[in-house]
Amino acid sequence: MDLFRSEEMVLVQLIMPAESAHDTITYLAELSLLQFRDLNPGKSPFQRTYANQVKRYAEMSRKLRFFHDQVAKAGKLAYRPIMENVTNLDELDHKLGDLESELLEINANNDKLQSSQSELMELKLVLQNGATLFHSTRHLENGQQLQSVLDDPSLEESVSRPLLLEQEMQTEPTKHGRLGFITGVVPKVKALSFERILFRATRGNMYLKQAPIDELVIDPATGEKVEKIVFVVFFSGSRARTKITKICEAFGANRYPFPEEPNRLWQMKSEVDERLSELQSTLDAGIYHRNNVLNNIGYSLEKWTLMVKKEKAVYHTLNMLSVDVTRKCLVAEAWCPVSAKPKIQDALQRAAYDSNSQVNTIFQILYTKESPPTFFETNKFTSAFQEIVDAYGVGRYQEANPGCFTIITFPFLFAVMFGDWGHGIALLLAALYLIINEKKFGSKQLGDIMNMAYGGRYVILLMAIFSIYTGFIYNEFFSVPFEIFGKSAYRCRDPSSSIASCMDASTAGLIKYSSTPYPFGVDPVWHGSRSELPFLNSMKMKMSILLGIAQMNLGIVLSYFNAKFFHSAIDIWYQFIPQLLFLNALFGYLSFLIILKWCQGSKPDLYHVMIYMFLSPIDDLGENQLFWGQRPVQIVLVLLALVAVPWMLLPKPLTLRKQHLQKARGQAYGVLDGSDTEDLDKGKEYEVEGEEFEFSEVLVHQMIHTIEFVLGAVSNTASYLRLWALSLAHAQLSAVFYDRVLLFAWEYSNPVIKLVGLFVFAACTVGVLLIMETLSAFLHALRLHWVEFQNKFYLGDGYKFHPFSFNTLSQDYEDDT
């Protein structure tokens, strides 16, 4: 497994007999080593050879999705199937059709029974509440007062009068009859509108009584539980009955009969209860039968789904192949790794043997100028780092892959900004928890955030380990320093006082009494001293510059390996060398001065040195001189930087133009050696290539690239100062939470206040430092890799290798379920 360059790929052609094509594609899908090309791009899906088979398996997939929805709706889990002999797909198709018909019939019967039960329940509620409503109207002298009101001639005339001032045909005089009524139930949300419309439609010639239902009622039409009320409408006349009936239908109010005689009412209640009991028994038997059917389906549902998905994928791939004119052979073209050729040939032989084919599949290599796909063989540890690189862009075929360097540089730059070995231990525990339980989390469907954390568990592991390392260098444990690696080299001015009780630490300062420095990392006495910020700022800022220049130089060196691998001498002479000279003549020299200053312990102003290196290169350096011969060295470096700019700009476009002209002349003379047809073809190729090369475009492109590198050398170096800024911010936030929250609460003797302070400190540490600061440092490290590092050598304009594989179908099924 080589992560530095992608796997060597080759385009192969497979000529397979039609009788073994299905088994051949199936065996190759199990290998997951071939990416097939579509040889029928101009054909629609319905014009392809195996369109009917794809349509058939799409219908089977629809039935399986229906079964899955029914199993999930019933609350039954699809059991993992026991390994059995593979069912014939024709039998499976027939079986799925029978099961679907049976399940649809069961569901239809259950729906009818549920609807009947809901109607009977509403009728029962009407019978129960209607008696109360009728009893409440008895105070109107058994309905005589209501009858006299409704029989008033003036009101009966108003009922028959139209809503608009239009004339209606004259009707016979109203014949006073017996008072009528309609009972039923209506949704509670529509009750107020229902009453208002009834009043307006009848001109107030009705009497409405309502009784709320305490429990939710299942609506017979929708099957949903809704709030409803029982109503009784009293009216007079057939016209009013017609109007009220239409209004009930419009509002979805279900009407039910209500007997006036008490004996008939009691008998009707008994009949309803008896029918409800019978319906419930029938429903229970139907649900039991339905659950048995769903259990049988759920037992093999996953197995059937994977079988159908595999067959559908196989025929979809077969549709990408071209059919021979004799329809006896299928021709396929696919990309595969060179190292996988023995496995592929073995699979082809097994497929021909198992399908009883008399002719083996022909396997041959095709030579093409097309760029192959990019394929890296990764494992669960390296895949997350490779995904970080691929998120920027998939690498061009066999160019240097930054992924192998990202495994170390990414968590290290993160740790530079997150340096605290206490926080690092917390991250380490979280990463170890994810790694130890990776089988458990891998089989579950996680949320977006948890899935992202689980996928990057090994990235978090290395980030935590490097954070512990940089935390030891910074000597910070939740912002508290410890003398882990030895004693401090400083002491208080008063020998009788300890460092912890020394009052001079934040005023006059400590004195150095030992020539041996602190063995590893920052001396703990710097924390809390009056020179803490100036010292740490200077150290972290210069360290950020050193790390940035080192990583950018690594990127430029990788561009050399790319140019050497692709045999591009132009890029070596006119891109790699001038870029390396320009960057190191300025910022490489600055890095050298930083290290020299640390080694000498001198006090020259490096800002002054770098500025006057350009403004006054020949002036005397004075006390800013760090080594003998510094002034002539700086003059040479400035000249090298100035020469490197036109070196990057002009030679490469001119050389490309010269090569193009030589190639064009060579093609022109080569025409005499071929036939007329070959001459015509070569002439056309020459015209096409001549049109593709434009010197002005190449020059402008190179100018943009040169300006981008020159300005980027400055801006990218400054961008690495984010390492210093975020490290400082992280340390100060940690110190604020420790001093202003935890120590402030610990000054009180009340244990409740101490517990509250500890809880607030823990919440701030987790919420701000372990979550927000982790995300912030992660994003900044990501930017440094994508922009400052990868743009020096990484093109990222390739396309990923997607082999035809059954493994992805299994993962898709897990995601769906």
TrEMBL record:
The chain crosses the membrane at residues 412-436, 457-474, 543-561, 573-596, 633-650, 758-782. This is V-type proton ATPase subunit a. Belongs to the V-ATPase 116 kDa subunit family. Keywords: Coiled coil, Hydrogen ion transport, Ion transport, Membrane, Transmembrane, Transmembrane helix, Transport. Residues 89-116 form a coiled coil. PANTHER family: V-TYPE PROTON ATPASE SUBUNIT A (PTHR11629:SF63), VACUOLAR PROTON ATPASES (PTHR11629). It is found in: Membrane. The keyword Transmembrane helix applies. The keyword Ion transport applies. Essential component of the vacuolar proton pump (V-ATPase), a multimeric enzyme that catalyzes the translocation of protons across the membranes. Required for assembly and activity of the V-ATPase. It is a multi-pass membrane protein.
